[in-house]
Amino acid sequence: MADDRAPRVVVTGIGAVTPLGEDFPSSWDALIAGRAADAPLELFDTSGCRAHRACSAKLPDLPNLSRKALSRFSRASRLALPAAREALAHAGLLEADGRCTRSDLALSISTTAGGMAFGENFCRDVLAGKRAHLFSQVERYLPQQQVLDLQQDFAIRGPSVIMANACASGANALGHAADLILAGESDCVLAGGIEALCELVFVGFDCLQATTTEKCRPFDLKRSGLMIGEAAAFLVLESQAAAEARGATILATLSGYGHSTDFFHLTQPQPTGSVLIEVMQSALREARLTPADIGYVNAHGTATPVNDGPEAMAYRTLFGDALGATRISSTKAAVGHTLGAAGALEALYALYALRTGDLPPQLNLQEPIPEIAPALVAPNEKCSDLRHVMSVNLGFGGSNAALIFSR
Amino acid sequence: VKTNLAIIGQGAVTPAGIGIDALRTAAPKPQMTATLGEPKTEFPVLRVDLKDLAFARWQKEPRLRRASPITFFMIEAAEQALRGLPAGDRAQTGLVVALSAGCLVYSRRFYEGILRNGQRTASPALFPETVFNSPGSHVASVLGLNGAVDALCGDESSWLSALKTAAIWLRRGRVRQVLVMGVEEFDPLVLDAYRSARWLRQPGFLTSEGAAALLVRTAGPNDKLVIARAREGLPYRTRAEAKFAAGDLFDGIDATIPCHRTARHTWMERLEREATASRPEFSAAPAPHLGTAFTASIAWETIRAASALEAPRGLVPVWGLNHRIGYLELENR
Predict the structure, then answer these.
(1) Which of B180, B208, B183, B190 is nearest to B67 (CA)?
(2) Is the pTM higher than 0.90?
(3) Which pLDDT tens digit goes with each residue over A136-185?
């Protein structure tokens, strides 16, 4: 059990723009209803790719911004701004004029590609010998520009960090934010992930034959690959003392974080899942919990042949006889693999399962991987007595991360 | 909150050579290099000599057979910094890498391949090497660093974030020591970028590449030189905001504390002169200009400043070129 006197990191606000909805509640409702957002990809030409579908998000309107201002934003910022606004408003940290009440708010943000579409345009124009508007493209593609967009829009000037640990980055951004708070560097952090669809990354996964041309089927014996997605997801994390001092509603406690690097291969996990097991055990130790305490796991579950087998093995080994009691699903079948945003978005889904007892179903299952078949969440499944949930992510480079949220 | 980091190892890869002694060596004459967009338009560039024998051992590593120059810069600088560490301690060592442009060579080659030859010909060998954290993963794997590995991106100020991250990991007991690195590689595409930003008009501006590594642990009572603080100043978007941020940077800091000037031949140089005009200077001598290589440059300057500080305290400004300004505070104890 956690020590009641130990400093705690709590969640006081959440927000997300996902392929399932323009805000977190609509995204959650669609997820629980079993909807999947995959559709033909229209943002750029995919005629030379194997796969032609993705999970695209509808960009929310930003009525307070002029068309000229909007044209300067990367797609990543168009996703990030409304999601961050929702999280700050939810936490009660927004003034009536849209500025954050905390000008010293720290940011811990993750992405893999930043505003890459601007970078692609820059490269395309350079190779075509065009000289006009190059600076505006190169200037706005860098990931720190999305951070600046957030800082400018909410009038915040606190410290910021940008995690780029591939597909585990979002979990790392949240874990780092918790570390900032527990180390006394900050008492309030806006943490989250941002990822916008772009050609370079889509073609990259496609050329690795990691994308599916069919349904995305995590933890299924007939899985054939991932569905790329995009999203922005944010949490406001605070020290419990700071949250209580301002009378904020506490949604959950971020009670454990583990991360490590799997050196087996740049793009494949260790076949037995041993590093992932260590990472989950590390998070459990920090939370002072045992595997049996975890009621639900939002799994990484990309639906690629090389990921899901080792990940399933890791759950089988870690949870042992408790596996059936622990419920597991990968929400990537519904929203796609949102890469640098995945860790943050999936943490939100785990956290909301904790709060509501509704469990995100494992979509598109035909023949579940036997090792974890009993644990995979069925449609309309509920669990009213969840006390602790876990969110797990793996990424290129062997980045592994696990977060635990508790009531 | 103080970082309180003792430096227990250092490494550098520069256009002037391999090893921290190269930070005192004049770089060879810049190579005139064409932009990607206009092959007849050339600018001077300082390059690391990848034929240096120091890299040969790494080129034989199976894991690095497809790695890009940035990984080789990194692993060589990392190995230098780790030399004094008992082999058994590597397992308790974390790695934090600060990058600005990241894995630019392969990213440009990958996307240029798509544009020139079509999506069907995209290279599955290149794509995984384009990811920001790939070099760190390679380095940690080959050198046996089993602590956590983080890749942080941003402008030069990500060096501050990297040092703060190391300090937090140490304070939280996640690792015993942390290797903190700044690393950048050159690609002709950056000349097009710098040209569009008009940076190449700055007298003396030289595009560069390389790496530096600091092995740090929490300072104890016997540590003489300590990175006491890593302070992030104000973020900025416009040059007017940058000027304001520069003016605010040392607000309230004792004016007698000397400063190691770091903004060399960039548009920040004037702001630095103004912000530090009344402050004494300390600097390593000789300290030839090794060009602009973002996080690698500020990491080189940190090593130079650490070797040059004789006063009880010293400031090392960090002039991020497109996000944030900040500083490091060093202490001689």
Answers:
(1) B183
(2) yes
(3) 898 899 999 999 999 999 999 999 999 999 999 999 999 999 999 999 99
Contact B149 A139 (CB under 8 A): no
Q: Please report how the helices B134-143 and B69-82 are oriented relative to each other, as an axis angle in degrees rounded to 10.
A: 40
Task: Examine the pLDDT at A41 and tell me if it is beyond 60.
Answer: yes
Query: What is the chain A residue with the closest CA to B190?
Result: A138
The residues pairing with B212 across neighbouring beta strands, listed in sequence order, are B12, B182
CB contact under 8 Å between A164 and B99, yes or no, is: yes
In this predicted model, what pLDDT tens digit does every residue of A268-308 receive, in sequence order? 999 999 999 999 999 999 999 999 999 999 999 999 999 99
**Under an 8 A CB cutoff, do B116 and A127 touch?**
yes
DSSP E strands in chain B: the ranges are 5-14, 17-18, 31-34, 42-45, 93-99, 149-153, 177-184, 210-218, 225-235, 313-319, 324-332
Tell me, what DSSP letter sits at residue B19? S
With tokens 């179903």, the residue in question is: A361
Rounded Cα gap, residues B190 and B188, in angstroms: 5
Please check whether residue B149 touches A, CB under 8 A: yes
Which one-letter amino acid corresponds to residue B134?
S
Kindly tell me the burial class for residue B301, based on how many C-beta atoms sit within 10 Å of its own C-beta (0-12, 13-18, 19 or more).
buried
B61 and chain A: CB distance < 8 Å anywhere? no
Residue A235 and residue A402: Cα distance in Å, rounded? 16
Local mean pLDDT, 10-residue blocks, chain B (333 residues): 92 98 93 95 97 95 95 98 95 97 96 97 96 97 95 98 97 95 97 94 95 98 96 95 94 94 94 94 92 98 97 97 97 94
DSSP output for B242-260: HHHHHHHHTTTS-TTS-B-
B176: helix, strand or coil:
coil
ipTM over 0.90: yes
The one-letter code for the residue type at B81 is: A
Tokens coding B239: 């040059």
Residue B118 is nearest to which of A48, A131, A164, comparing CB atoms? Answer: A48
Which amino acid makes up residue A229? G
For residue B114, the distance in angstroms to the closest alpha carbon of chain A comes to 8
Pairing of strands A106-110, B313-319: unpaired
In Å, how far is B95's CA from the nearest CA of chain A?
A: 10
Q: What is the DSSP letter of A320?
A: G
B287: number of Cβ within 10 Å: 18
